[in-house]
């Protein structure tokens, strides 16, 4: 007999084993490279998020000329004495606003986090443009 059949009556087992080993290792290397590419993409995304957050904090510090106020706004806090502008920078525009004008006081209820018709999880009261109280439901 001639060819590989003379040496390997049952086929070339070494070549089949090598082929299977190569395929397994190519798949493993491909998976590892895929995870590496994904990890690098995640690092770049996190760096971009970090840079955006740093830029936002720097903008708030410049706007309010106070690190403490900027930090509270950046952390989305609500506090008594907070101005309308600080509240908008902190939580964004309200979903709804109720206005009252009793006497000389301008009183508004800013509503956030709507759940159903005319029901909101967060209600903030402002008098003359300054936060005086708030109520939050969970």
Give the CA-CA distance, first to last residue: 84 Å
| Strand content range | 15-25%
Q: Whole-number radius of gyration?
A: 32 Å
Q: Report the uncertain regions.
A: none
User: How is the CATH topology of the largest domain named?
Assistant: Beta-lactamase Inhibitory Protein, Chain:B, domain 1
Topology, number of strands: 4
Strand order of the largest sheet: 1-2-3-4
- Architecture per CATH nomenclature, i.e. the level-2 architecture of the largest domain: 2-Layer Sandwich
Write out key terms for the chains shown.
138 residues, alpha+beta, Beta-lactamase Inhibitory Protein, Chain:B, domain 1, four-stranded antiparallel beta sheet, 4 helices, 4 strands, 52% helix
Q: Describe it for me?
A:
This protein is α+β, with helices and mostly antiparallel strands and 138 residues long. The chain has two domains: 12-62; 78-136, Beta-lactamase Inhibitory Protein, Chain:B, domain 1 (2-Layer Sandwich). The protein is built from four helices and four strands. The protein has helices spanning 4-7, 13-64, 67-74, 84-91, and strands at residues 96-100, 107-116, 119-127, 130-136. A hairpin with a 2-residue loop joins strand 3 (119-127) and strand 4. Helix 2 packs across helix 3 and helix 3 packs across helix 4. The longest helix is centred in the N-terminal third of the chain and has 52 residues, at 13-64. It is elongated, with a radius of gyration of 32 Å. The protein starts with a helix and ends with a strand.
């Amino acid at each position: 007999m001639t060819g590989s059949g003379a040496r390997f009556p049952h086929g070339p087992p070494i070549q089949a084993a090598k082929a299977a080993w190569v395929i397994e290792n190519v798949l493993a290397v491909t998976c590892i490279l895929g995870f590496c590419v994904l990890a690098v993409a995640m690092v770049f995304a996190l760096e971009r998020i970090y840079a955006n957050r740093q830029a936002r904090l720097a903008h708030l510090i410049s706007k309010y000329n106070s690190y403490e106020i900027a930090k509270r706004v950046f952390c989305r806090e609500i506090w008594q004495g907070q101005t309308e502008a600080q509240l908008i920078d902190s939580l964004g525009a309200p979903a709804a606003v109720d206005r009252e004008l009793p006497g000389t006081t301008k009183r508004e209820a800013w509503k956030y986090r709507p759940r159903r018709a005319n029901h909101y999880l967060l209600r903030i009261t402002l008098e003359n443009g300054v936060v005086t109280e708030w109520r939050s439901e969970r």
